[in-house]
Design a protein that fits this description.
Distance between the termini: 52 Å
CATH architecture of the largest domain: Roll
Shape: flat
CATH topology of the largest domain: SH3 type barrels
Oligomer: single chain
Mean pLDDT: 88
Largest sheet: 6 strands, antiparallel
Order of helices and strands: EEEEEEEEEEEEEEEEE
Number of strands: 17
Radius of gyration: 21 Å
Number of helices: 0
């Protein structure tokens, strides 16, 4: 058991039956009245951020989590299958627990966040940026770099990304997995 004095950014809490990460916190000692802690908590499952004010000194339930590196192997009827690169143990994870699942390609290294005591998977994080090949888009024209206009393109994972007009099928691009946006063209 921890108290509000132990709160720090990135800490995982069991609060009202759900798991939350501390995004931001501030210890406040007003001139009148008792001290309190103002926090921003991010729900592990939904990603929703809530503001919560806690009285100073109350007990909070800290959840011990571990971040482990896994490699994506394949997708089947049970879900997405990953392998621990150290123990070669394989696990299957549901689609809804994977952030940026549309940009997941074979052999990709991901970070799996696991509840340490119960060994349950909380969520899976892809790298912030991945390099993908454009498998289909309308042909681009030389000189189409002046405007900031975007066109739809399909990448090797099957996801659709909006890319600049000058890019063509076969080009490699860097994509932000958090929001699916085009970052830059990758030259060989």
């Amino acid at each position: 058991m921890a108290t509000t004095a132990d709160i720090k950014n990135g800490m995982c809490l069991d609060f009202e039956g759900q798991y939350y990460f501390v995004v931001e916190f501030l210890h406040v000692k007003p001139g009148k009245g008792p001290a309190f802690v103002r926090t921003k908590l991010k729900n592990v499952k939904t990603g929703r951020v809530i503001d919560k004010t806690l009285n100073a000194g109350i007990r909070i339930d800290e959840v011990r989590i571990e971040r482990r590196d896994y490699q994506f192997l394949y997708k089947d009827d049970l879900g997405y299958n990953f392998m621990d690169t150290e123990t070669y143990e394989q696990i299957s994870i549901e689609k809804n627990l994977i952030n940026g699942v549309d940009f997941l390609k074979d052999g990709e290294m991901v970070e799996v966040v696991v509840h340490a005591e119960s060994e349950t998977v909380l969520y899976v994080d892809l790298p912030t940026h991945v390099v993908l090949e454009v498998t289909y888009t309308e042909p681009g024209l030389k000189g189409d770099t002046a405007t900031n206009t975007l066109k739809p393109a399909t990448v090797e994972t099957g996801a659709e990304v909006r890319i600049p007009l000058f890019l063509n099928t076969g080009d490699k691009i860097k994509v932000d997995t958090r929001n699916g946006s085009y970052v830059e063209r990758v030259k060989e």
